[in-house]
Design goal:
By secondary structure, the protein is mostly helical. The protein is built from 49 helices and no strands.
């Protein structure tokens, strides 16, 4: 008996596939559907005709459902609003059933497209046979899911175990699909892949599906079927899919959540045979059991405390390297941390921001422009914009002015002195923080957060500063001012250094200008803009406070990849100069922040920029060069060093596009060094060639040249002649005063890019040959460039030496000391108490050197010790902040990288990431039962931290308002009227129009889930009047205009379907 049932269950899924032996009948049904949609057939007439059609051309339910829910080449964007109404009629006549609807709806759902686009669709759920899916099926899905809820709850349409188990299989697939699609939207933070409307529609569809899922999980026939031995695979599928779906979709603590969790954690496990769960060796089952153990693990809750150190740690992590302040992610973090307390959020954000700046003052890092400039700009130019966004959620009596006043009253005046304190004899000569409070207040006034007249009261002294004369900048106005006015562009770039609150608009305007000039190929103006920005590495930091790297660099990379000569090109040297300036800015960003090709938004494996960044430092052996490359190389050598050849004439430049030249630069310099080392090239000729290459139109090529020679200098330590030739070349490039101011400025930009690897190479050689006199002048010449070269959050050698030499434990002891400092500061955050000395480089370095698990246990052990000391809430908050802090060196690629393809045309494999602290914590939490046996206290701390970290990192729950305010108010078993109201409201909110259906209304959805079971209303935005001249009046025959000859004529005969 069991075997027979198992066979029935397994065959059921194959039965659901559209049959292929009903070709003629399928064609008739498809033509009938087309005619119905074209004629806007009302439900009553459709009801009559469909039964006639079925009597002549019967089809199994899966095939009928597939025909009605399948997209067509002529319409594959969204389902016609009539379709869900027709589906209700078909369901009423049992021409289709619940499994067939779920299967067809699943096959063609838009969720597949979103999951595929972001690379999140599980392989086992992918069906390559389905070539066409709906562009936006969510509105129709929402209505159909609610209709299925009614069918299950009120109409008891599930009639046997086979059908019940097949429905369970399909809802499990739907849950996995929704989770995959939601993950795709979560990666697409900036909305690059889909519009916000699509995501909202998916959330509403998913909310409707939750009602169906709950109805199915509480159906008696379903529960009876799941309890049978042959249903073990179905039970497993439900457990696995619900574990993720429920926790990421349904608001925690709601009635829906509790009922679904009860089904997953108690009802389903109760169906398992006694004694078999513990003996299983199936890893999938083991994973399920560990998840269940974690979910059911009981811990003693402790009060949540938002310590002063928590947000301070998070902001440090955001700003320690490349600025990664994404507004949406930051606001989500603040919402999760403060649970909607807008007053506490605002005050703590201001305080933490001032603490971050105070930290570098007390660490004596403020004198280093590399560290201080971007933090000061964040505080004055970025923070007021964040506060302006938060202020939109404030309602009287709460105001932004109150929050700012309250926060400034707690700011440390030792770090940020008043104007009068600046003249005190005890005041230090550090002017970095002198005017920060005043500048911040004026920036807040500029954005309307406080009145200008209140600033003196806030500061407690008279000020002599005023608001910017031009007022608050608007990005669009700045862009228009700069179009055709290069002087305005230069002034705008110089304003990046301002501390007046207007820099955000400046940064966004510059990014917009770059994109516009690239699109219009306005390369002359773009050259000016890029060369000016490349000279100012600190301004790049400020740019990234308001723009993502991909927004700035993708247009530039696309321009470089597609750059070519015009047919009537007159001069070629300007082309090289423009190309080089654009490339120089790209390289400045890439090397300063250690960006990958995915960060740049490069889509093609044949991209010049991608090749330049991956192999642009490597020289090619002559036998690997193509004939064309050999010819070009010979021409460049002759042009640079043969005075009789005419130099770098247009003939040479015209035969060699700049992309080809830059890819050959390492090979060119390898041959130059080899020729000079072996005596084939004298010093005077070498000097002449380097002078050519140092000109503004070629000087960007010195970046790959110096990178290549730097590598060769410390790799080829035994080749003395080549090393001397490299050092001589370095001297000619670096120590020679350039002939023009522009050339000298361009060379300085080049040295800013290459200074760090150049210094490493020179010091390596210096250790090899301490007596060499050639190294020290070079190191001295690039000293200033070294300070401006990198901002990657990597720790300096002296920092690592200090941390690893900490007494009684080395690096581990250093991390513990930092944690203890945070706890002490947070427990006693008095006025004028300096923040704990901290740089997030410590945690990043510890993560790389100690590993995620060891670092995690250092944190856990300190939490345990602080808990014993009575600081449990503060210690937990600090641990959560450290674990949740973003790691700029281990960031996932941007969502746009899902579009990248490799050389074979397949999706590019994303770079592998290191194990993060949240991932390590999750792994330990899943092993909580084992840990509990040896250390119950630690197991409890791990599970408690894991749950708090998950809550902290949780993305905004989809359609939370709908689920909380709508579905949770519905008793789906007893309150059918409420469900009907929800259905009607869903349709009404979507602006759905409908025609006169069976008991429907022209202006409303017409859904009635009461006892009269009114007809299903329209789901789309298409009205039912005025279509193709048809008469849709109440008394009219809808087929009259189609030549049916009246109601007595067989409509199928007229339509050619008899």
């Amino acid at each position: 008996m069991v075997s027979a049932m198992e066979m029935d269950v397994d065959m059921m899924e194959s039965d659901l596939e559209p049959a292929h032996d009903h070709a003629q009948s399928r064609e008739q049904w498809a033509r009938f559907l087309d005619r119905c949609i074209y004629a806007r057939l009302d439900l009553e007439t459709f009801d009559n005709y469909v039964t006639q059609l079925y009597s002549k051309h019967p089809l199994p339910p899966p095939v009928v459902a597939d025909i009605f829910l399948k997209p067509r080449p002529s319409n594959h964007w969204t389902l016609d609003p009539r379709i869900p109404r027709y589906v209700e009629v078909l369901l009423k006549h049992k021409l289709i059933n619940i499994p067939s609807i779920l299967k067809a709806l699943y096959n063609y759902s838009t969720s597949h497209l979103q999951a595929h686009t972001a690379g999140n669709i599980p392989p086992e759920l992918s069906d390559s046979r389905i070539q066409l899916r709906w562009g936006s099926s969510f509105l129709a899905e929402e209505v159909i899911f609610y209709r299925l809820t009614k069918a299950v709850r009120m109409e008891k349409r599930i009639t046997n175990s086979v059908e019940a188990l097949e429905i369970c299989k399909l809802v499990a697939k739907w849950m996995v699909l929704f989770v995959s699609a939601a993950a795709g939207f979560a990666q697409d933070v900036y909305g690059q892949l889909q519009s916000p409307d699509i995501k909202t529609e998916m959330d509403e569809s998913r909310a409707a599906f939750v009602s169906t899922l709950l109805a199915v999980s509480e159906d008696k026939i379903v529960l009876a079927a799941l309890s049978r031995p042959f249903a073990k695979k179905v039970r497993r599928a439900l457990r696995e899919s619900m574990a993720t779906f429920v926790h990421t979709t349904v608001p925690n603590g709601s009635d829906l959540f509790e009922r679904l969790e009860l089904f997953r954690t108690e009802t389903l496990p109760s169906f398992e045979p006694a004694g078999k769960k513990k003996n299983t060796t199936n890893p999938v089952i083991d994973d399920i059991e560990s998840t269940m153990a974690l979910d059911n693990f009981i811990v003693n809750e402790i009060p949540n405390v938002n310590s002063r150190a928590g947000l301070y740690i998070h902001l440090n992590a955001l700003l320690v390297g490349r600025p990664i302040i994404d507004d949406a992610s930051l606001f989500n973090y603040l919402h999760n941390r403060y649970q909607g307390d807008i007053q506490a959020t605002t005050i703590d954000l201001i305080l933490a921001s001032f603490d971050v700046v105070a930290n570098i003052v007390f660490r004596n890092e403020s004198q280093h422009q590399q560290v201080g400039h971007v933090l000061r700009s964040y505080l004055i130019n970025k923070l007021p914009l964040l506060l302006a966004t938060l202020a939109t959620s404030m309602f009287p009596p709460l105001s932004a002015q109150f929050c700012i006043t309250e926060a400034l009253s707690q700011v440390d005046t030792n770090a940020f002195p008043t104007l009068s304190a600046m003249f005190d004899d005890s005041h230090t000569n550090n002017t970095f923080a002198d005017s920060v409070r005043q500048d911040f207040c004026f920036a807040c006034a500029l954005h309307g957060l406080i009145p200008e007249t209140s600033i003196e009261d806030l500061l407690g002294e008279i000020t002599y500063q005023t608001l910017p004369q031009a007022g608050r900048y608007i990005k669009e106005q700045l862009v228009e001012e700069c179009m055709g006015d290069t002087e305005r562009i230069q002034r705008l770039i110089s304003e990046l250094d301002n501390m007046d609150g207007n820099v955000g608009a400046v940064c966004q305007a510059l990014a917009e200008l770059i994109a516009r000039f690239c699109n219009e190929k306005e390369t002359m103006t773009l050259k000016l803009l890029c060369s000016q920005l490349a000279k100012k590495p600190l301004s790049l930091d400020v740019m990234l406070l308001f723009n993502r790297p991909i927004a700035i660099l993708r247009p530039l990379c696309e321009l470089l990849d597609s750059w070519g000569y015009e047919e009537d090109q007159g001069e070629y040297q300007p082309v090289y100069e423009e190309f080089g300036s654009v490339l120089l800015l790209v390289l400045a960003f890439v090397y300063r922040y250690n960006l990958s090709t995915a960060d740049l938004g490069i889509h093609s494996p044949d991209s010049f920029v991608a090749k330049h960044l991956t192999v642009g430092q490597l020289s090619k052996p002559l036998d690997e060069l193509t004939d064309q490359e050999k010819i070009i190389l010979d021409k460049w050598i002759m042009g640079l060093f043969d005075t009789e050849s005419g130099g770098l004439a247009d003939e040479l430049l015209s035969s060699c596009p700049p992309q080809d030249f830059y890819l050959l630069v390492p090979t060119l310099f390898h041959n130059i060094i080899l020729a000079f080392a072996t005596g084939y090239l004298d010093e005077e000729s070498l000097k002449t060639g380097i002078e050519y290459l140092a000109n503004t139109f070629l000087s960007p090529s010195l970046v790959p040249a110096i990178m290549h020679m730097s590598n060769q200098l410390w790799i080829e330590l035994n080749n003395t002649q080549e090393q001397k030739a490299i050092l001589k070349t370095f001297a000619l490039i670096i120590l020679t005063k350039q002939s023009s101011t522009d050339a000298q400025a361009m060379l300085s930009s080049v040295l800013n890019i290459v200074a760090i690897p150049l210094e490493y190479s020179l010091r390596s050689y210096q250790r090899y040959d301490p007596k060499s006199q050639a190294v020290e002048p070079l190191l001295k010449a690039v000293r200033e460039n070294i300070r401006l070269s990198r901002r990657t959050a990597s720790a300096a050698n002296n920092e690592l030496e200090t941390w690893t030499s900490t007494a009684n434990g080395g690096f581990a002891a250093n991390v513990r000391h930092v944690l203890q400092g945070f706890v002490t500061w947070s427990a006693h955050p008095g006025l004028n108490v300096a923040p704990t000395s901290y740089t997030h480089r410590q945690i990043i370095a510890a993560l790389k050197m100690l590993g995620a698990r060891r670092l995690l246990y250092i944190i856990l052990e300190e939490v345990k010790a602080q808990t014993d000391a009575g600081n449990d809430s503060i210690a937990h908050d600090i641990a959560i902040a450290l674990i949740c802090a973003p790691d700029v060196t281990n960031m996932p690629p941007p969502a746009e990288s899902a579009l990248l393809v490799d050389a074979s045309g397949h999706p590019a494999v994303p770079p592998q990431q290191l194990i993060s602290l949240p991932a390590a914590l999750k792994h330990e939490a899943e092993d909580c039962k084992t840990i509990q046996k040896s250390d119950p206290v630690m197991a409890e701390i791990i599970v408690r931290l894991y749950r708090k970290v998950e809550a902290q990192l949780q993305m905004p729950p989809p359609a939370a308002a709908m689920l909380q305010g709508g579905l949770t108010a519905l008793d789906l078993g007893e309150n059918a009227a409420a469900l009907g109201d929800a259905l009607a409201a869903a349709a009404q909110s979507d602006g759905l129009g409908g025609g006169a259906g069976a008991g429907g209304d022209d202006t409303t959805m017409g859904l009635d889930l009461g006892s009269d079971m009114g007809g299903l209303g329209s789901v789309g935005g298409v009205g039912d009047t005025g279509h193709h001249g048809l008469d849709f009046s109440a008394d009219g025959d809808m087929f009259s205009s189609l030549g049916t000859g009246g109601s007595g004529v067989d409509p199928f005969e007229t339509w050619g379907m008899s």
